[in-house]
Specification:
This protein has 13 helices and two strands, in the order H-H-H-H-H-H-H-H-H-H-H-H-H-E-E. By secondary structure, it is an all-alpha fold.
Length: 302
Amino acid sequence: MEQSGISIHNPLEDYKALVERHMLSINGLNIDYCINIFKSIGKEIQCAIWRILFDTGKFENKDVLMACELIEAYRCDAATYGLQEYNKWLENLRNELVNRQMITIWEEHIVRKSLGPIEFGTGIHNFHNSEQDCVEKFESVMSEEEITDFEAIIGTRTPLLDYQKLMEERVNVDFIISEDIALANYKKISTAVRNTVWTLLFLEKTDRLNNEIKAADLMAANKLDAALFEPWEYNEWVFRLRNKLLDERKLRFWRTQMVRRQLGPCSGKDCTLFLNKEYPPVKEFYNVLLVDESNEEPIVID
């Protein structure tokens, strides 16, 4: 197909003319041929929408309405001829809108007008595809204010699950958020992690063995994330935790969890944020002189 050149002035009319000329006016076209033709037209549509929304240098409501009219027409035909291409492109469009802080376009136009992903099975050519897009999840995009407005609660009953849920909903989200927001949310959650670990180890007086396991599982998950976000703060905190454990004679937790599972400081070996692979000197963290209460003999833990 020759270069279609959908304009940014009358894109909907240009699109309809292309479909009429290359797909509707020729008798005997089979579905596979139409799909290939529509791929070329679809690329032109995508380019035109991108230019209307992002490349014109000015932003007016009429441009948004024009782009949405084109998206609506594109979506209607894509259900038959280019479902997967439409859904993939729409995800890129959504991410770009979020990244440019143009979320109101997504919420007030794309979502409100039901222009989100096409479910598999709605097109005559794609009825056989057994996968199902999670349309509701795709359309649910939080604003930056909403993503940061939360209370980080990690209980003592299922602390690991609480932590994983918070990370999934506020940090490891399915849409683009800035690194600053992700880091701020992570720090907020990590503060709750450390408070809960402290409670499980030093304040809870019943079911201590089970609480120690819960605390260790929570620390292990948090340490993995700390290596990506803020290893320095984790390291500073874990030294304080170690000293408290030894002062309180929590030797079982120290030996069976902290040492055996290597829950001490993040180092250059597991964190790319440290340029020196041997920093900080992790071995010194574990190499402490203890006295076993049963025989009062010194024990060195390496």
